[in-house]
Write a structure and sequence with these properties.
3-stranded antiparallel beta sheet
Length: 158
């Protein structure tokens, strides 16, 4: 019984090896059909999928304006406190106090790339970026301020 099982295992292993070698031989004869990415040689042409979750970014337009109102919905949705929203009060032309974004702090080293913050944002002020190379020597480089210095909220966003 033991010898029979041993010979059957050898036969299955040989069959599996030959199946893999058949695939390798096919790609050796048809090299244009290879789908392997040659990273890092193809960094300039590498295109990630649209649904790829690299890191949270806050897009700004050409006037350094963003859509973040400082509502802190993203901060509340984050499961591990990756986002910290610091708000301030601005005075509107009518003389009313209005809450506004002062600093959007993003701790990339804590982020699990779940995307819950992006889904929670009512104004689509943040989105998931395409960058995936985050290796640094100093961990403090992974704490980012997403709103640009001197940026302000885009007109018409409430």
């Amino acid at each position: 019984m033991f010898l029979k099982d041993y010979i059957v295992d050898i036969f299955r292993a040989t069959k599996s090896l030959l199946t893999g070698m058949k695939r390798t031989g096919y790609y050796f004869v048809h090299p244009k059909e290879i789908i392997t990415e040659q990273y890092p040689d193809n960094r300039d042409t590498l295109v990630m999928a649209d649904r790829f979750r690299g890191e949270v970014i806050m897009p700004h337009d050409e006037n350094r304006e963003h859509a973040c109102t400082g509502c802190t919905a993203c901060e509340l949705a984050c499961p591990n406190a990756t986002i910290k929203i610091v708000t301030k009060f601005d005075i509107t032309p009518e003389g009313k106090k209005k809450k506004a974004l002062d600093t959007f702090v993003y701790h990339l080293e804590l982020c699990t790339m779940c995307g819950l913050c992006v889904e929670a944002c009512p104004t689509d002020a943040i989105k998931m970026g395409q960058k995936f190379e985050h290796s640094v020597y100093d961990r403090s480089m992974l704490t980012k301020k997403l709103n640009l210095p001197g940026s302000k909220i885009r007109e018409g966003i409430e």
